[in-house]
Amino acid sequence: MKESTDGTKTDRISKLPSVNSGPLVLDEEDFKGDFSFDALFGNLVNKLLPLYQDEETDSIEGHNSIGVNSALSNGNLRIPSDGGKSAQALSSPLFPKIDGRLYNLKKEVVTQDSKHRKTLGELEKGVDGLFDSFARLDSRISSVGQTAAKIGDHLQSADAQRETASQTIELIKYLMEFNSSPGDLMELSPLFSDDSRVAEAASIAQKLRSFAEEDIGRQGITTPSIAGNATASRGLEVAVANLQEYCNELENRLLSRFDAASQRRELSTMAECAKILSQFNRGTSAMQHYVATRPMFIDVEVMNADTRLVLGDQGSQPSPSNVAHGLSSLYKEITDTVRKEAATITAVFPSPNDVMSILVQRVLEQRVTTLLDKLLIKTSLVNPPTMEEGGLLLYLRMLAVAYEKTQELARDLRAVGCGDLDVEGLTESLFTAHKDEYIEQEQASLRQLYKAKIEELRAESQQSSESSGTIGRSKGASIASSHQQISVTVVTEFVRWNEEAISRCTLFSSQPATIAASVKAVFTCLLDQVSQYTTDGLERARDSLTEAAALRERFMIGTIVSRRVAAAAASAAEAAAAAGESSFRSFMVAVQRCASSVAIVQQYFANSISRLLLPVDGAHAASCEEMATAMSSAEGAAYKGLQQCIETVMAEVERLLSAEQKATDYQSPEDGIAPDHRPTNACTRVVAYLSRVLEAAFTALEGLNKQAFLTELGNRLHKGLLFHWQKFTFNPSGGLRLKRDITEYGEFVRSFNAPTIDEKFELLGITANVFIVAPESLSSLFEGTPSIRKDAQSNTCCCEDAGSDLTESSSDWVRMELG
Predict the structure, then answer these.
(1) Statement to judge: residues 690 and 811 lie in one domain
(2) Which domain does 141 fall in, by range?
(3) What is the pTM of this model?
(4) pLDDT tens, 558-576?
(5) What is the C-alpha to C-alpha distance for residues 168 and 174, in angstroms, rounded to an integer?
(6) Same domain for 337 and 445?
(7) Which of 5, 50, 315, 566 has its CA 20 to 30 A from that of 100?
(8) Is the domain of 145 the same as that of 250?
């Protein structure tokens, strides 16, 4: 121990009382710090031993034992401080005594340990034996339990066999009663006539029938080897016949009781009878009997009310909207009735789903089918009903309404409950006969509608023509007014018919391939209708142009006629010109409406038809090709008509030039005086006419059609003017007026937006300068334009001097070919 610690402990021990004063007390502070047992023991010997030197040896030994035990048990001991002075006086015999005591204790411990080990070994042997006993007991208990279970099974089997034997004996006894004589049911046991035991009697009768019929069947398969088998078989046949008779009588009795309870709405009695009847042919007869006795199937007034509700009063013409409303009301009533019956069926029958299946099937096959047969009368494609009677369209609309409403009824009945019945498939079968010829009916209806519409338009046109009279036409007024014009409204009506037909196609089928085939066939009808209608309209407009041309030819006169004849011919020519202009405008309107009609069809195809054709490979492309082919006839008629329009315009231009152009316009006798910079009267009239008549072309045509038409007209105008001017001779002042006319024509054709035509008139204006300058100056005039210079030199006449007139020969004209 440290020195400080030793000093503290020494002080504490010195303060302790003497041995006789009381027990030695230690506290926890004695064990803190660097504790050492050797220091504790040394202090004990040195401080306390002198106090015991005068006492007896036994007392000293006892005190030493106490001190040692305290030291051993506590690990530290307080010793009076004055004992340290006598530590050297410790007697040497003290330690051998302690060792001896410790040896004895150790020996005693070894002895006790040996005894304990022996005892534990004996206990282990006893526990092992006890476990073996428990295992044998458990095995025995298990064996006894298995034996008891086998005995129980044997007892149960024996009891079942006994019960079966007892029941068999009873059944044989009952079978013998039925086997007595054919048709004799009077000697049967009371069981079979007791109304309170009907369920038991029905069960036994069914078991007897099953046994007897099985035996007869077995006898029929196996050839009898002894006469007894044949006798037994004949006996069972008698039993089977009697049992059949009894079961029929019992079933009828139960059905009568069931009907009586049904009229009184005694559901418990009905349920009891239905449960018993379920043993007869799985209760089919009871189910069918219950369904067949429902008022909606046997009451004639109910069926007549259905007809009046949907078709209206007898002799009236039903409309699709009224039929739709009537079917909705009727089918709602049927659904409510079935729902009420479902509640009764659920409370009465053991198998309500089977009864609901029979009920719903009966509703569709009897009540709905009876109504549909009166509503949907198939029409003949050879002799279809007239439009006054509604035509094929009325039948198709009725079919669509009936199909849609009946499908809704099927879904409602499915929601109410119909067992395992395929109500959707059964509903489809009701319309199979109508759907087989649907596409042919739809196409025939569209053709009938088109024919009726065309006849209506012709009648309106004829009536309009008759009301306006023929005076105007006899004087050369508008010929086009007597012809039927193309109407975009009519084409829109064609599209509306087709759209309605397409909606029916998608209604009657859910298969993409079937829908695509139907839609393609129906859309082809629209293409045929629009193509025929627009082509006929364009051809009628062309007829107006042809008639106007005939008028022009009729009033052409020769050069040598009287003044009176010439005046009459001029008046007729004016009328023919007016007719031509009117025909031109009418044809342009027809072309415009034709283009609008085609655009309507294309838009309809993109919005409604295309998506229905895409699921089938090639269907979309085939329809596009059909659309192009269908419109080709109208395009051909339009092209021919536009050519006639150009002919009509050029004929009038030539007439105006011939009538208005004077020789003095280009060869004024007052040459040298101040020139007239105004265009000639002929030029003014022609430009005014072209501006007026081509206004319709600018409005009606667009795109490439407009560009091609105006380019062709510009070329023809250029060529016609060249041919016209070849008839005149020019002096310098006349050349100036010619140049002014060319400028006027060039300004007008600039509105054509045709660069090639503009270039031709510009070159024509340059060439006209040949009539203004002296011949020797022509080289400098055409310098830089070799082609014009060559033509000018080869076609310009020789002049007597710079101021002389050009020759009057028409060969002196500068000729330019049509570009």
Answers:
(1) yes
(2) 106-172
(3) 0.67
(4) 444 556 666 666 777 788 8
(5) 10
(6) yes
(7) 50
(8) no
